[in-house]
Amino acid sequence: MNSVAPNYKIEGLTVQNLIKNGDFSDGTKGWNTGYKIDVKVEDDFLILTPSSDYDRTGYFRQIIAAQSNGDIAYIKVIAPDVDNPDLFIRTNNDFDDYPINGTISSARYSLDRVQDGGKTYVGLGIRNTEDLTTERKIKSFSYYNLTQIFGAGNEPSKEWCDAHLPDYVEGTKSVQLPMRV
Question: What pLDDT, on a 0 to 100 scale, did the predictor assign at position 7?
């Protein structure tokens, strides 16, 4: 009896973080000026505080191009300060704001308000706070278009993304997927 060794081809997955400078290593380059939020980068952290004209909501965002209505997106934010219930992930979808409530916070959502030319925005916001002095710190911000990576109808769950997508990568990266042999 002959034994046959199985022949497996193992490939990784190429993912692209569409946020530019999401680790803030180049200051706030690539990000829009904060709206009713003061923004600075210190000791490798983005620091947000309400500005003097703050009144209920302020945000800091980046425009993402080549997006389509119905695409599924995934955002991951690394934030060491988890005691700020007024800090949230802001999206182009008017009612889809996600609280940052842990060291790693994430959201998976369907794009439904993409602007002409395929533009959408994502960012960080501060809402409904009386505390105008506390600094809210962010380590990194990532945005992946799951539809572009996996194809329509094949987008993984939020739980899968939490476990397998990198915390932060600038640009494109090949990652190893979990596999069964």
Answer: 46
Q: What is the pTM of this model?
A: 0.84
* pLDDT tens readout for residues 90-123: 887 555 678 887 788 888 888 888 888 888 889 9
| Token pair for 36 | 């009713």
Q: How far is CA 177 from the centre of its chain?
A: 20
C-alpha to C-alpha distance for 51 and 108, rounded to whole angstroms? 29
User: Which residue has 């802001």 as its token pair?
Assistant: 90
* Token couple for 118: 């395929």
d(CA 92, CA 114): 7
DSSP category for residue 11: -
Percent of the chain with pLDDT over 70: 86
Closest by alpha carbon to 73, among 100, 59, 93, 88?
93
Beta pairing class for 104-110 and 72-78: antiparallel
Rounded Cα gap, residues 25 and 45, in angstroms: 9
| DSSP symbol at 159 | H
Q: What is the pLDDT of residue 77?
A: 92
Q: Give the C-alpha separation, 64 to 12, whole Å.
A: 25
SS3 126: strand
Q: How far apart are CA 149 and CA 165, in angstroms?
A: 12
